[in-house]
Amino acid sequence: MYVTPQTDDGWVTKVEAGPGKLLSIDVEFPVSIEFLDQVKDRLPELVFASRSRLARLGIEVRPVTPLQRDGKALRMSATVQSVIRGYPVAQHLPDLVLQGLKVGRLVFCPEERRLSSEKVYEEVVAHALQLPASFSIDREGRFNIQTHRCVYDLAGPVTLDDLRTIVARIEGQDLLNRIQVQRPVTHIVLEPGDGVITSCSMFLHRHYVVLDLQSDTLGQHLQAVVLDPISTRGTRVFLEFCNLSDRPIVNPSAAGAVYSAMPSEEKPARWFIKERDRPPVLAEGLKDYKLLSTVFDRLLGEKPGTTYYDRMVAVSDDLSATLSGKPPRAIWHRPTERPEKGVGTFTAPPADRRGIEFGTELLAKVKPGAGVTLFMRYFPNLFEHLALCNAALEGKVKRLVFRHASYEHGMFLSARDHGRLADYQGLGVEVFWCNDVRKHVSTHVYRGLRGYFMEPSKIESFKTPLIVAIYGSTRPLPDEDEANLERLLVSLKSFFGGSIAILTGGGPGAMQQATNIAHSLQIPVGANFIETVDQRTNQTADFYQTFQGRSRHSRQRWFEVASFHIFCMGGVGTLEEVGLTLTDMKLGIIELSPIVFFGASGDDPYWWPLRRQLEVMVGNARAPAWLKSHVLMTVDPDEIPQFYRRTLGLG
Fold first, then answer.
1. What is the C-alpha end-to-end distance of the chain, expressed in Å?
2. 287 has a pLDDT exceeding 70
3. pTM as predicted
4. b or e along 87-124 (b: 16 or more beta carbons within 10 Å of the residue's beta carbon)?
5. Cβ atoms within 10 A of the Cβ of 259, count?
6. Is 277 a member of any domain?
7. Within-domain flag for 229
8. pLDDT tens, 351-373?
């Protein structure tokens, strides 16, 4: 990962009424010893960046005092005000800005990491970053940002509870994305004393941008001034302006300086517990499939059972010793209550499981804070999951290693299993899979809200690149289309500076062809495997997730990690994915981005009949108007990068 050197969000420690409609606040920032050592006596090079969700509501948090160090914390005072007349925020501001509210972070902007004008130009030419169209670079290395011709309004009435959710809760950003809608305009007119929310497209892969607040000639940008390489890789990067002058401003713009980001391990998000100390480096054996499968064979015994109830659980408080052959602290094989004699050939458990015991009961004997490793034959069911979560809350469990995803469904996980994986992430439990199908050990890693399995050595190839989703049929593409797909991936890799990966459904046909082409170009490949009769899972995906047949619609949520969507020739399954993707964009569940329908049938684009249908739907006001501007149907791979550039307003 490439990240900005920054603190965690600071919070409000004191609130007082200020002059007019201003609020005066004191803010405290938690700072690690490592960050303080990095900054040392360079506090003036720390820039305060307010939270995006506050700025998108027109809430301006402006520092009024220099930073002061107080032990392991940094403190400052600031003012808070509402700057957008059309947003119902000003009257609720005293009820929103309360003690404990997170307001923003401090970002270290050392001069030696700032790019000169020559270096910015070199990086743009090399496609190491993509800036908005019509940008200009001054002699100080700052570039001018031209915005999209649009503003963002609230879709309807917003209550105080809505505002509280947006500013304070984890899901607040999702709510804001749903209720804040784009309105196209010919020109953005910023009236005196008012504010406006607009956007641009920008892709920062290994850099971060700090906006200039010194000049307000073309509008004063709010204090959300840092665009980082994780969130600023998209088609909709929000910009927030206010007009402090007594004259209207037409088409506000901002200038930004570019800094080199720092390579770093991403800090895992924990939403149920306070982040604990990082675990020690894993034993190498936990990455070795052959060794780990031998360990599982040993734990299962010479004659492992064949029923659902044979859910082996082993507790290890010394992982290295267990991998080396030493028996773990405790092993549980079978429940004390066995099924009745003669009922040993069932293929699924009975609906009524009362009185059934599971091996996770061993965790009751583990001391809090022990941080043991749990070996399980199967991924946890509901009863095992509840015991594991309770143990994790007490710090008893640090790591889960399982061998089979499901007793009934082989390597495929259910929608409930994916919810359990999210719980483990939130509780700080690391998850490893001794995958007998792939013959490797994979670990579960999140990117945003979606987790994938991958070998530990491939985490960077999942976390770092821009992801392009490629959909298609289980039938192979014709030779000409396959060659065109290769040309397209070559162009996209060049367009985004080499920092891309593709994501497919993981099946045969067009999906396998896309996988093979991508790997030949050294492009990482992801897969969302689905349990169906017509799809064999490929064995070469660099990162993957699995879904049972009834989780088909849930599976589409995992395509949210993709920034772009390309539909090759496909059948009804692909058509369903088209509908889900367009609906997600319409509802604001995923970011609105250019959509490409690619491939030929004879001399005509395969998808042109769908184009006519979309035109009819838009003409009857039954579909959003952006379907006219954001959809391309083509057989020409060279047309697609230019379509992206034109639609997104990239330089």
1. 25
2. yes
3. 0.83
4. bbbeebbeebbeeebbbbbbbbbeeebbbeeeebeebb
5. 26
6. no
7. yes
8. 565 556 788 999 999 999 999 99
